[in-house]
Amino acid sequence: MTTDGQLYISGEWTAGSAGATFETIDPATGEVLGTAIEATEDDVDAAVEAARRAFADPAWHGMTPSARGRLLWKIADLVEAHADELAELESKDQGQSVGFARGTMAGAADMLRYFAGWCTKITGTVSPVSIPGMLHYTRREPVGVCALITPWNFPLAIAVWKLAPALAAGNTVVLKPAEQTPLTTTRLVQLCEEAGVPAGVVNLVTGGPQVGRRLVEHDGVDKVSFTGSTEVGREIVRASAGNLKRVSLELGGKAPSIVMKDADLDDAVMGNLIGGLINSGQACAAYSRFYVDASRADEFTEKLAGAMSGMTVGPGTSPESQVGPMVSAEHLEKVSGYVSRGVDEGAEIVAGGRRAEGDLASGFFFEPTLFRGVTHEMTIAREEIFGPVLPVISYDDPEELVTRANDTPYGLVACVWTSDVAKGHRLAHQIRAGEVYVNTLPMLDPAAPWGGFKASGWGREMAADALDAYTETKGVWVNLGG
């Protein structure tokens, strides 16, 4: 029996209660790549109930930390063994290059192994209470049933960011991938089943926003972890109020990249080119507004435009491609609209600015686009475009930089380019962002916490910090007498 495009509930693959399906599209061609099940409310209820049963089942809650660690390690081995297959599937479903996707698969395996090691290290404390004859200690216990709702830009990687710490802490989960990109998450769940994850511990429901909404509102869900837009994040906060479920959010960004007068300009150009066009700009960590010292802005813009103009736009499955498609026709329209608005507001296009034509016209491609003459108040400098559109904003007074960088509702990522390390540290301390990079590309590591300030989210993923999102602290008092 094939399990492609099915739901996974209580250890069984199923076409769901209604059997309705939706199509997933190859963004490089516009053609139908496959189908997935549109889960109903009854399907979501069944998945949550399965997770609740599994949470209470001794096969899971009685599993030793060491055994949980071995289980996560086995999933990691399977992800690694199927990395080429997963990368190609990710490329076809999402659009990113196969080579880049292979890197995210390696990162997913590393993430699983990192949290496999934490299974035996989730400890409590003995508290030095001042009440005579009393022993007080704490336990870190799993939250319960966790709804893990993931985005379309890095489908498998972000699913693993959430799944690994959730399972390491002993929770059960219901995974809900973005409807645009369900395929690699489905394959990941198959690998969890192959690894021997007990029935009901990992469940999968697919479908549109109504499926996620039902999960968020469900009284049987104890925690929601969501990565996506800030607008949807706010809706989740409101919808989760019914049973006051715990919520962690990794939301939007508008990352400033500051190029100081003393920066190595060639490094800054290359770093911002790669950092701005990572996954074709479809990344919340992408450098998306460049503040460049006025004395160097023209040189920076010319070099960046030259580098962008030489980039190859094409399908992720082609080894020559450097910029892939937008994930959907709808998102392509959104990106195109921002470019038009930039022109209407007075910015000048230096490179790109159009949808790809010719052989690529059937896909959702947009040329990497560079604007100059951008002011801090323009829409393309303030709103998250989530595409290959880069605005250059020149500045005269370095004292204004921190104010400009912080003048945004977002606070996920920022970058500083300077040859003065002390200056880099000072700016990093002053900018209100969860991650600040100095003279480097945006990057991740399982041991480094990830998350944002302000409207970029609540809580942290990765590192030991992630375990805070998936555990509760219980205090135990024992009367010792005397």
From TrEMBL:
Catalytic residue positions: E250
Keyword flag Kinase: no
The entry's keywords: Oxidoreductase
Matching InterPro entries: Ald_DH/histidinol_DH (IPR016161), Ald_DH_C (IPR016163), Ald_DH_CS_CYS (IPR016160), Ald_DH_CS_GLU (IPR029510), Ald_DH_N (IPR016162), Aldehyde_DH_dom (IPR015590)
Keyword Oxidoreductase found: yes
Residue ranges annotated for the Aldehyde dehydrogenase domain, each copy included: 13-475
A Pfam family annotated for this UniProt entry: Aldedh
Family annotation (SUPFAM superfamilies): ALDH-like
Record family assignment: Belongs to the aldehyde dehydrogenase family.
Protein name: Aldehyde dehydrogenase family protein
